[in-house]
Write a structure and sequence with these properties.
Blueprint: E1 10-13, E2 18-22, E3 28-33, E4 39-44, E5 59-64, E6 70-75, E7 80-85, E8 90-96, E9 101-106, E10 112-117, H1 134-137, H2 149-153, E11 154-156, E12 162-164, E13 176-181, E14 188-194, E15 202-203, E16 206-207, E17 214-219, E18 223-228, E19 233-238, E20 243-249, E21 268-269, E22 276-277
Length: 287
């Protein structure tokens, strides 16, 4: 039996009796026969034109439409949502999203796709850095203090060394949920929602250094629930307003509270949409 080098996410197509498995750094999605486990085919996620180059990719979370005809996958290093026609096994569209898209889910009416972005910055190469001079030119130490003026704006030295800035850590592309409208022929980002605590905001009298790390999502008719791994809470987003309307704080069992973080990751909603289940990395409790 063949298995991809990195099994990240999978989606069942019960009618066709096959399973889609994301291939991580292979930049592919694999298809397997449910009956015997044999590999059927693979879908390449490579794409290149004058404005975009997705020759490399890291395919992560995926969701399959109810009719099984469309597959939605996130490319973590390409910062894109990939929309795939499962009948032709071809990419229909690449939609640029936030930084390091990690989780994805469909709205109940399948008119929206929600993407959780866990990354803070979009890094770039040092100007003038090549394969030939990387050992000589590459920095041996961090070029600036986190969230400083130099970190945000970059700087140049007298000997012509140029360090690009990283920008504001709280931009919409950072630690956020993107809403992608798929009701039209061409999908587009319709909203960008920040979740959890912003970098620098005061939490228990201490400024937050890391971001919320929204990692997983699940949707009901009215809400999208988002687990914020670094904040130990759940953001509740209104599907009508595309804004956070409530925050659910997770409290560990008394016997485990000294461990502090519970690191919520993964969500599932009940069939009647009256409750959801949440595994925590530390306490492993179902809420």
């Amino acid at each position: 039996m063949f298995w991809p080098p990195f099994l990240w996410a999978w989606q069942l197509h019960q009618i066709a009796k096959k399973v889609y498995v994301s291939g991580g750094q292979e930049n592919k999605i694999y298809l397997f026969n449910l009956a015997n486990g044999e590999k059927i085919d693979s879908i390449s996620c490579q794409f290149k034109n004058e404005s975009s180059d997705y020759s490399d990719g890291y395919i992560g979370d995926m969701r399959l439409s109810k009719d099984g005809k469309t597959l939605f996958a996130v490319d973590q290093i390409g910062f894109r949502l990939i929309i795939i026609d499962t009948e032709t096994k071809k990419i229909k569209q690449n939609v640029p999203v936030g930084r390091y898209p990690f989780g994805v889910c469909l709205s109940k009416d399948e008119k929206e796709v929600y993407v959780a972005n866990v990354g803070m910055f979009q890094y770039s190469y040092l100007p003038g850095l090549t394969k030939e001079n990387v050992n000589e030119k590459a920095h041996k130490f961090p070029p600036f203090e986190f969230n400083s003026k130099s970190a945000k704006e970059g700087y140049k030295t007298e000997d012509s060394l140029e360090i690009p800035g990283l920008g504001d850590p709280n931009v919409p592309e950072s630690f956020s949920v993107f809403s992608v409208d798929i009701s039209k022929d061409s999908a587009f980002v319709s909203a960008k929602t920040k979740t959890g605590h912003l970098v620098g905001s005061m939490v228990e009298d201490i400024p937050a250094v890391g971001g919320a790390s929204p990692n997983s999502l699940v949707a009901t008719d009215e809400y999208v629930f988002v687990s914020n791994g670094n904040n130990d809470n759940i953001s509740v987003i209104s599907t009508e307003k595309d804004t956070v309307i409530s925050t659910i704080y997770l409290k560990p069992d008394e016997r485990l509270k000294q461990f502090r973080g519970v690191i919520p990751f993964g969500l599932a909603v009940s069939p009647d949409q009256k409750g959801f289940m949440l595994p925590n990395r530390v306490s492993m409790r179902w809420q």
